[in-house]
Amino acid sequence: MWGYIFKRLVQGIITVWFIATATFFAMHSVPGDPLLNDRAVTPQMRANLEAKYGLDKPVLTQYFVYLGNLSRGDFGISFTQENRQVNDIIRQHFPVSAILGVLAVVFAAAGGVLFGALTALYRNRLPDYIIMFLVILGISVPSFVLAALSQLALVNLNSLFATNILPVAGWGTIRHMLVPALVLGLGTMAYLTRLMRSSMLEIINSDYVRTARAKGVPPARIFARHQLRNAILPVVTVLGPAIAAITTGGFVVELVFAIPGLGRYFVEAVQQLDYTVIMGTTVFYGAFLVFMVIVVDVIYGFIDPKVRLE
Amino acid sequence: MSTTGIESNAMAGKVSSTRSAGRQLALYGGYGVAAIVALMYLLSLAAGSAGGGGSSGLAIDAQNNSITIALSGEPPQMDHTRQVDSLSGTVQEHVLEGLLTYDYSDNLVPGVAYRWEMRDDGATFWLRDNARWSDGEPVTAHDFVFAWRKLVDPDSGSLYSFVAYPIKNAEAVNNGDLPVESLGVRAVDDATLEVEFERPTPYFEKLMAFNTFFPIREDFFNSTNGRYASDADQLLYNGPYVISSWVHGSSMRWEKNPYYWNDEKGFIDVINVGYMTQDVNARLNLFKDGQIVETQLLAPMLTNAMEQRWQIDRFMEGTLFFLEFNHREDRVTRNYHLRKALQLAQDPVEFVYKALKEPSYLPGVSLFPGWIKGVNGLFRQEYPPIKHQINVAKAKEHLALAIQELGLEEIPPIILLVDDSPVGNLTGEYYQAVYRKNLGLDIRIDKQIFKQRLEKMTLGDFDIVAAGWGPDYDDALTYGDLFASWNLNNRGLYSNPEFDQNVRIGQSSMDQQKRMDAFAEIQRIIYEDVVIIPAYERGLSFVVDSRLKNFKRRSIGAPVVFNYAYIDDAEL
């Protein structure tokens, strides 16, 4: 077990190194100049700026300097917010994304399992049709539409009751989080519902369920012990990457609801060619994703005794 | 039908099993909800410690004399000697003050200096003794010397150091040729600041009201260990407000500065920056919900805003957008007749009102936007620009001449460099269509993201570029010198001795009438020699809560100013 975890961690570090290297060279080959601004600068000042960010050295030297800093956990200073360390940006904004992401994943997982089980139980009956219609909506409507519409709905709701039922935007209390988390988690919830439905259906018709029924096991027990527990496995499998995707993919939701998460920096840095922030956020998110996948693999061993970790 | 009975039995069994399974599911659902509620409680505790702002409350709180506003993002650079963006400028305008300042009606009035004197070779400022920093210490002349030296210090890498070049030796210091101590500014004593000029600078006093020339106190700067202006407690304030809290990317709180000297500024006790988002729709929703006092309106929002009977205002934000030609040797756009043909075949009025469809924009008519001041009144009223008329027949004549002069069979495809943005797309499409229709020219659109458009402009990799220019200070020269042959921002490398000569008059003549005559000449050359084609002046529509009075927008410096605003609750 411990040997397995150690092996996975080493693999993970190699993966992160690969992500860092690929991002570094991809970023430097993107056309455009990070130091250029609206106002032209003299060659002297340009040289000063290059020296400040170490851009005056050959790319390969920059790469090794970067790897050295990375191994010490130092991402450097931002190009666009010159007073801020990239480490500080991640430290201040990632918890916000993570909190929102956790709530969104909980919504998604709870809703996905619940609705998936429901649709399987009521297959080809009205609840199934209604839920599956909503699922298709949830998968196909992009989050920026959903975010904007739900925000508008909040405005109308508040004005209808002439009181502040839920805040329209902002961050700070649980009331600020509910709607953004729901919007953020809805796509994943829809996806999980479908996954849960198909794996439930497969199991309902399996041999051991028929045997249990023939033995006279109470239906509630069959459902809980034999069906739900087995059907939930594929959901757990995709949950790891889903957590990483939700906590990192909140750019639109963060923008619309004015939430100070890391997603904004992740996207805006690329638009503004902010080298250090691009590298910092990408490597950080990459490491996070790798870590989540490892965690899920370990958890898998506990849920499913058939999986032996070696 | 022998199977019917079996099937109905099976159905009955299935229904009952479904029901009990459903009950089990409901039980799990109940546990799940309980768990989620518990989790949400924990998360809300965590959120309080991670970036929790406390953006509750209303747009206007008359009882506590406070308002809530939204900014379009996190202010990226609060160190004013290195700041280039208007967002940081907005915050600085409320928490810092320069030697001079503008009043509500845009008159230059005393700030930290109560009296000043302008000469050909320099200026003297006498500082008031009741101007204080937010820790109670007096603001002295040394604080200005320190900040300005930092501004031109090549190690600071300040992009705005060029506005200080009128000060003696500033350019040489900035290029690293002279030590910073040789900058022509000196504190005679704590209350007297003496400035030497490189050349006569008639507009110098107007510079003194802008962020770039605000003071920094040396001992405080050194105590921040290179983290100056990175957080609320890493800044010292001498303006009407202090930043009492700053949660990055989320919120800010500006409270009245108890040490501020001027009781004509800062009538509202607390200004909450409750939200930071660049999403205009989100800000509009916040305004509708009564959470913020003011917001911008985009063209599609105007109909709805009018239905709500909001008081909508329009404001020219100061920036001019234009087609800039590449005047390099190897470019066809160097040819005068081609440029003239391109000028005569288009119409900015049509472009703004039919293509952009933005009612708050104005069609471009001159290099100098409408709000620029002249000798006594507005520059464009004193010196009306040449009236542009679209004339396709004449354009075709010029095109024929151009083909002849260039010795070509036909004009090769012309590359039009534009931003990859909604307005950039419309700009590209309009000119492409209009030149194909009127002149049969093939315009190739080169769409690039902002930073890369700048790189291509700097390298001269274009024939025509859709570019823009915003003002740096309140004088016609901020536009007038843009196409001087030595200006680094003249990216099409236009060069004309007559033009340059007029720029020099505009820079250094102490006679305001003579200067404006020179700018009028520049305005004429821009049109007649087709240096650029003005496209539009950018404006914006906005709405302000009717209970807030004296809210101010400005074309230069901070675009939104709450320093003179007060709450008038009487209407309720």
Description:
The complex is a heterodimer of chains A (310) and B (572). By secondary structure, chain A is mainly alpha-helical. Chain A has a domain at 88-266: MetI-like (MetI-like fold), CATH 1.10.3720.10. Chain A is built from 13 helices and no strands. In chain A, α7 packs across α9 (219-231) and α10 (233-248) packs antiparallel against α13. The longest helix of chain A is centred in the middle third of the chain and has 36 residues, at 86-121. Chain A is flat, with a radius of gyration of 24 Å. Chain A starts with a helix and ends in a 7-residue tail after the last helix. The mean pLDDT of chain A is 87. By secondary structure, chain B is α+β, with helices and mostly antiparallel strands. Chain B has 17 helices and 22 strands. In chain B, α9 (336-344) runs antiparallel to α12 and α16 packs antiparallel against α17 (512-528). The longest helix of chain B is centred in the N-terminal third of the chain and has 47 residues, at 3-49. Chains A and B meet through α2, α4, α6, α7 and α9 of A and α1, β11, α7 and α14 of B.
Short key terms for the protein model shown above:
heterodimer; A: 310 residues; mainly alpha; MetI-like fold; B: alpha+beta; five-stranded mixed sheet; 22 strands; globular; disordered N terminus
Gist of the model:
Chain A has 13 helices and no strands. By secondary structure, chain A is an all-alpha fold. Chain B has 572 residues and is of the alpha+beta class.
Task: Produce the secondary structure layout.
The complex is a heterodimer of chains A (310) and B (572).
Chain A (H helix, E strand, L loop, with lengths): L1 H28 L13 H11 L5 H13 L14 H36 L4 H15 L2 H18 L13 H31 L2 H9 L3 H13 L1 H16 L2 H6 L6 H9 L3 H29 L7
Helix pairs in contact in A: 1-13, 4-5, 4-7, 4-10, 5-7, 6-7, 7-9, 7-10, 8-9, 10-13, 12-13
Chain B lengths: L2 H47 L10 E2 L4 E6 L14 H10 L4 E3 L5 E3 L2 E6 L3 E6 L13 H12 L17 H5 L10 E5 L2 E5 L7 H4 L10 H6 L17 E7 L3 E6 L13 E7 L3 H9 L5 E4 L4 H6 L4 E14 L10 H9 L3 H9 L5 E2 L15 H4 L9 H15 L7 E6 L2 H18 L3 E6 L1 H10 L4 E6 L7 H4 L16 H12 L3 H17 L3 E13 L3 E2 L2 E2 L6 E2 L4 E2 L5
Parallel strand pairs in B: 2-11, 15-16, 15-17
Antiparallel strand pairs in B: 1-2, 3-4, 5-6, 6-8, 7-8, 9-10, 10-11, 12-18, 13-17, 13-18, 14-18, 19-22, 20-21
Helix pairs in contact in B: 9-12, 16-17
